[in-house]
Amino acid sequence: MAYEIYLKKGEEKRIVAGHSWVYANEVAKIEGKDKNGALASVFSNDGRFIGKGYINHASKILVRVFIRGNETDNEQFYLERIKAANDYRIKLDYKSCYRMVFAESDNLPALIIDRYGDIFVMQCLSLGIELRKKLICDCLVKLFAPKGIYERSDVAVRKKEGLPEIKQTLYGEVPDYCEIEENGIKILVDVKNGQKTGYFLDQKENRLTARRYCAGNVLDCFCNSGGFSLNAATVAQSVTACDISELALQNVRDNAKLNGFKNIQTLHGDVFEVLRTFRKEKRQFDTVILDPPAFCKTADEVKDAYRGYKDINLTAMKIVKSGGFLITCSCSHYMTANLFEKMLAEAAKESGRIVRYVETKTQSPDHPALLSADETQYLKFIVLQVI
């Protein structure tokens, strides 16, 4: 008999509104018996059907609901869900470089699929998706006939599902680097060793927006493979791309060469120390870009993250020339927009500079957010002017 999950009284409201996660401590009782990772039905405390999702007894998220009706998770189901997700991106004029499936936001919890031309990169973040990896690959092949599919499930969150981190080719042949085009720029994406799935697709539109603020001398901090640096180089006099990863900086240099940019130089170092050194040297820039990795991945880390964000933003404000711009980002869901703006206001006050708010954006439309799931709304992109 398949698992039947009955929630505690009132716990169904969030799930009915569209959220996917059923936490173990929200469950009143479990009936039936099946394999871990199997499809389980979820009911309210009074027996009303809520939906179905994959169960994992090893995780605090006991069930991830993604079916709200009578469907079952067969090949036809996955073909339709993946096609619907891709059709949405095609409607928005995404062509060959975009996030095709964004987990909960596409009713496929714990599944990420990024497209880099003919190469697809998958992340499987739950036991249920892990067990259906081959089925999903088969669907991708039937729908799109890619040259290769690579798995980048080398993420710590899998440990919470009782799963090991893993990287591997799932289908076809996958090169070390895929060449894509973003905003008219050629970029080599390191799908096997780059961060996340190789590139941060969620900032694509924001990197184009950044160009209008990047005349003069630009400092791009936490530059990774150079997305902001390359876009800035189309208009800037000079760009200094800084990162602690030499592998990332080599990627920047390769991408600069690929595009014929001669106005990009790389700087290896810890951004916190680099910013402090520039401040001591009284070196200033027309534009400073801060796009750090998530400083907090749990609610318990918010206080420390707040201090970290404030540190780099305060120092950055001090090294921006009068009339120049600070482009600052946070990709942590737990650092909410209100909290991030509060931090910026404090940093501005303590910097002794007058700072004004210019523009704010969020993640690209191929990373849509559910109003019922705060976790899917995570990226903050803010432009400030130091006057």
What sequence of helices (H) and strands (E) makes up the elements? Answer: EHEEEEEHEEEHHEEEEHEHEHEHEHEHEE
**% residues in beta strands:** 25-35%
Label the overall shape.
globular
> Averaging pLDDT over every residue, what do you get?
97
Q: Compute the CA-based radius of gyration.
A: 22 Å
Task: Briefly characterize the structure.
The chain is α/β, with parallel strands linked by helices and 387 residues long.
Q: Topology, pairings included?
A:
Blueprint: E1 4-7, H1 12-16, E2 21-23, E3 27-31, E4 39-43, E5 49-55, E6 61-67, H2 75-91, E7 97-102, E8 111-116, E9 119-124, H3 127-131, H4 133-144, E10 148-153, E11 166-172, E12 177-182, E13 185-190, H5 204-210, E14 217-221, H6 227-233, E15 238-243, H7 246-259, E16 264-268, H8 271-280, E17 285-290, H9 302-318, E18 320-330, H10 337-351, E19 355-361, E20 380-386
Parallel strand pairs: 1-4, 9-10, 14-15, 14-17, 15-16, 17-18
Antiparallel strand pairs: 1-3, 2-6, 4-5, 5-6, 7-8, 8-9, 10-11, 12-13, 18-20, 19-20
Helix pairs in contact: 2-4, 5-6, 8-9, 9-10
Which keywords apply here?
7-stranded mixed sheet; 20 strands; 6-stranded mixed sheet; 387 residues; 10 helices; globular; alpha/beta
What do you see in this structure?
This protein has 387 residues and is an alpha/beta fold. It is built from 10 helices and 20 strands. It has helices at 12-16, 75-91, 127-131, 133-144, 204-210, 227-233, 246-259, 271-280, 302-318, 337-351; strands at 4-7, 21-23, 27-31, 39-43, 49-55, 61-67, 97-102, 111-116, 119-124, 148-153, 166-172, 177-182, 185-190, 217-221, 238-243, 264-268, 285-290, 320-330, 355-361, 380-386. The strands form 4 sheets. Strands 16-15-14-17-18-20-19 form a 7-stranded mixed β-sheet, sandwiched between helices. The protein has a 6-stranded mixed β-sheet with strand order 2-6-5-4-1-3. Helix 7 (246-259) links the parallel strand 15 and strand 16. The chain is globular, with a radius of gyration of 22 Å. The protein starts with a strand and ends with a strand. The mean pLDDT is 97.
